[in-house]
Amino acid sequence: MDDKLKQKLKNYVLWLLGRQEYSRRELTLKLQQKEATEEFIETLLDWCEKHNFINEQRYCEGFVRKHIFKCHGLKRIQSEAMGKGIDRSLLELVVEELEVDWFELAQDAYNKKYSNTPPDLDYKDKAKRVRYLMYRGFSYDEINFAMQAQ
């Protein structure tokens, strides 16, 4: 790789990071699409970490907060974090620090979707609501709490 291409890729990474946070894995994939060498990718991302342009802790906190704001449950957050390459132990630490009440969050998600509907449900409607909350990543206990609270 010549110096001009290296500078172009460095500018590309800085441009990406100027727009939003990225995990190291996401940036690696983006650089691989631009056909950068593995050695250059490692060097560039190490430089970014050294200058605090990439910070996995900060990225993970933002990721979890975004999903909590969208009323997603722990299971959904864990699933999507795996796809983003977030370390499981770091994710658990961030979730523990935020002290989220998952039961209250499930209730908020339920109320946001079904607040204007009658409380008397037949089996089909109840199953539909349970599937909706399961898709959002809540456990059965959290779902039962949300549906009982209405």
Automatic annotation (TrEMBL):
Principal cellular location given in the protein's record: cytoplasm
Domain RecX third three-helical positions: 99-147
Keyword annotations of the record: Cytoplasm
Listed transmembrane segments: none
Any Pfam family: RecX_HTH1
Subcellular localization: Cytoplasm
Sequence ranges assigned to domain RecX first three-helical in this UniProt record: 10-48
Domain of life: Bacteria
Functional summary from the UniProt entry: Modulates RecA activity.
Membership in a protein family: Belongs to the RecX family.
Official protein name in the record: Regulatory protein RecX
Organism from which the protein derives: Pseudoalteromonas arctica
